[in-house]
C-alpha cells in the first residue's frame, strides 16, 4: 500500500502586521533574509514587519513585540488598526512546509505605528531565541512597498496601503 499523503493544512496562522510610518510619511520595509523552508520561499523580497501572535497574547501587544524583535525599534506609538483580519495563502508548493506544515497561510491584523525615534535605533540583530528576519532596511513610499513584496502577499498589502491612505497624518 503506497504511503498516504497527509491532508493540506486548513488553518491560518494568527499574525500581526506593522506599518511603521516615519515623520515624512514613508514606510519602513526590510529585505527578508533567505532561510530554508521560509514561508516566502527563496528570493530577496522586502516587506513590512509581521509575525505570529503568541497564545493568549493581545494583538496590540504582539505588534509592538514583533516590531522590537525584528527591527529593534521601540520608539513607536500604535495609532490605528485595520478593523478586519486579512488572510493570504502561501503558494501550493509551500503548503505543508511553511511554519512546520501546520498552516496554509496567515490571518493578520494590521496596525499603523508612528515612529518618533532616530534611524540609529534600527537594529537587525536577532532578538534572543529568534532567527534574523531582515538583512537590510529602508524607508519607502507606498508604491515601492507594493512592488517589493513577494507576489502572493500583494493583495493583502494593497488593502493595507489603501487603508493607510485614508488615515489622518503624514502622507
The helix count comes to 3
- Overall shape: it is globular
> Span between N and C termini?
61 Å
Overall mean pLDDT: 87
Rounded Rg = 16 Å
Number of domains: 1
Order of helices and strands: EEEEHEEEEHH
Give the CATH architecture: Alpha-Beta Complex
Folded structure, characterized:
With 171 residues, this protein is of the alpha+beta class. The protein has a single domain, classed as Nucleoside Triphosphate Pyrophosphohydrolase, CATH 3.90.79.10. The chain has helices spanning 59-71, 142-148, 154-165, and strands at 12-21, 27-32, 46-47, 50-52, 76-81, 86-89, 105-115, 134-140. The protein is globular. The model has no long low-confidence stretch (mean pLDDT 87).
Topology overview:
Layout: E1 12-21, E2 27-32, E3 46-47, E4 50-52, H1 59-71, E5 76-81, E6 86-89, E7 105-115, E8 134-140, H2 142-148, H3 154-165
Parallel strand pairs: 1-7
Antiparallel strand pairs: 1-4, 2-3, 2-8, 5-7, 6-7
Task: Briefly summarize what is shown.
The chain has helices at residues 59-71, 142-148, 154-165; strands at 12-21, 27-32, 46-47, 50-52, 76-81, 86-89, 105-115, 134-140. With 171 residues, the protein is an alpha+beta fold.
